[in-house]
Amino acid sequence: DFLFFWGAVFLVTTTLVAFLKKENQEVIPAKEETKGITDTYRLLFSIIKMPAVLTFCLLILTSKVGFSAADAVTGLKLVEEGVPKEHLALLAVPMVPLQIILPLVISKYTAGPQPLNTFYKAMPYRLLLGLEFAFLVWWAPKVKHEGGFPVYYYAVVVLSYALHQITLYSMYVAIMAFNAKVSDPLIGGTYMTLLNTVSNLGGNWPSTVALWLVDPLTVKECAGAPGHTCATAAATEV
Fold first, then answer.
1. 170, burial (CB in 10 Å: exposed 0-12, middle 13-18, buried 19+)
2. Which residues lie closer than 8 Å to 96 by C-beta, 6 or more apart?
3. pLDDT tens-digit profile of 4-37?
């Protein structure tokens, strides 16, 4: 039903645009950034060779390592501790209006000459929230009862997620504002695409590594089988 509704909205709005939006009659010749895919990659290579761009790319590729585990694993561990998936999905609903409002509010602070200041200020708070998420996972089995989890536990989870969204969007909007600010207007699309792609990659590879390391770093104990650590998948199954 959800997909059907928004699919219908998409079709109606795009059809209205097709019929009601009139194109400009005057054709303004636009300067093409590049002539083809080879030129584009040649241009990207020349951009990334610049010392300042190379240093910046190395920084944003590693800047999210500190909270990758908390971001990627917390939800999975809460489910493992018994929090129902459907309840976690419902907790995401109050985050939607927050996600809409936050960029509007944060953009006021990133519109100045130093947009990355917001990025720097948000980072320690986001790191601290990683400890808060670890506490939520540790706390889950302590408060669980036969009927599930108490309301106050969910309230703390929602509050923690809300604070996390504030720090996440502060860093996200700041880095986008900086990328837009430093991109050369003559090749703005290519320049910004490169920086934004590196920024996205800087968030994705640490999360992938964190998920891959969950099993090797998890301490396990086999009930009723002393001396066995259940270190492998086969041992755990046995």
1. buried
2. none
3. 999 999 999 999 999 998 877 776 655 555 567 7
The DSSP letter of residue 145 is B
CA nearest to 43, candidates 199, 186, 175: 186
- Domain assignment present for residue 16? The answer is no
Contact status, residue 169 vs residue 102, Cβ threshold 8 Å: yes
Tokens describing residue 97: 């209006």
Beta carbons within 10 angstroms of residue 231's beta carbon: 14
35, part of any domain: no
Containing structural domain, residue 160: 40-214
Asked whether the beta carbons of 171 and 126 are under 8 A apart, the reply is yes
Q: pTM for the complete prediction? A: 0.77
The answer to whether position 119 is within a domain reads: yes
> Contact, 71 vs 211, CB < 8 A?
no
The model's pLDDT over 123-162, given as tens digits with 9 standing for 90+, comes to 999 999 999 999 999 999 999 888 788 999 999 999 999 9
Asked whether residue 172 is domain-assigned, the answer is: yes
Number of domains making up the chain: 1
Q: Which residues contact 49 (CB under 8 A, 6 or more apart)?
A: none
